[in-house]
Specification:
2 domains, 41% helix, Archaeosine Trna-guanine Transglycosylase, Chain: A, domain 4, 211 residues
């Protein structure tokens, strides 16, 4: 796939495909970037930064809503689309631009991925409900999506991880490999959350099925 040029929005976070992201745009250079995107009819790229330097893999951000404020600032809602790799940069505008190549999602063993998806979805639901129990909320009966790619990015966005760890999940080329990494993280988090819930229940700070 040929390379293309794209405005880049460096942020201290990771945007994942299929996931929404609200943005408050106040710096003049990024207000200009959004204006250029709207005028030229293209998306921009969100890239996480490490010590001021953008990672080389980011996510296309499609603008789905824009609210303009009186002083020129903007509130945006964007949706993550395809991943991309930066192969070059240019500073010919007030904001950074990148020459990028779209990263396709790698093919997987369908049967193995289906089994892994089901196992990971169950672990994610258990993890989510333990979090809710810890703050005194009822369990969520809604089931996670069973489409492997969507599930993998939903979990990546939901996990409480540092930016480098989230970037590792974004950069993983294969859906099944990403799900496997997430399953390992979820199992560790579930053990920790079970201990936290038990301690909170014993202290009487939450009510569970145990008290």
């Amino acid at each position: 796939m040929p390379a293309q040029w794209l405005p880049l929005f460096p942020l201290n976070l990771v945007l994942f495909p299929h996931m929404p992201l609200p943005l408050h745009v106040f710096e003049p250079r990024y207000r200009q970037m959004i204006a250029d995107c709207l005028e030229e009819g293209h998306s921009f790229g969100v890239v996480a930064i490490q010590e001021g330097t953008p990672y080389d893999i980011g996510t296309l951000a499609k603008i789905v809503r824009i609210d303009r404020l009186d002083d020129g600032r903007m509130n945006l809602l964007v949706m993550g689309a395809s991943r991309f790799q930066i192969v070059g940069t240019a500073d010919d505008r007030p904001y950074l631009r990148g020459q990028i190549r779209i990263i396709p999602e790698a093919g997987d063993d369908l049967d193995a991925t289906a089994r892994l998806t089901e196992t990971t979805a169950m672990a994610f639901q258990q993890y989510s409900n333990l979090l809710r129990e810890l703050v005194g909320q009822k369990a969520d009966e809604a089931e996670p999506p069973m489409e492997p790619e969507l599930l993998s990015y939903l979990i990546a966005a939901a996990l409480n991880l540092q930016v480098p760890e989230k970037q590792t999940l974004l950069a993983e080329r294969r859906t099944d490999s990403r799900l496997l990494l997430e399953l390992r993280i979820l199992r560790k988090e579930i053990l920790l959350l079970k201990q936290m819930v038990a301690h909170a229940a014993a202290a009487g700070t939450i009510r569970t099925g145990l008290n």
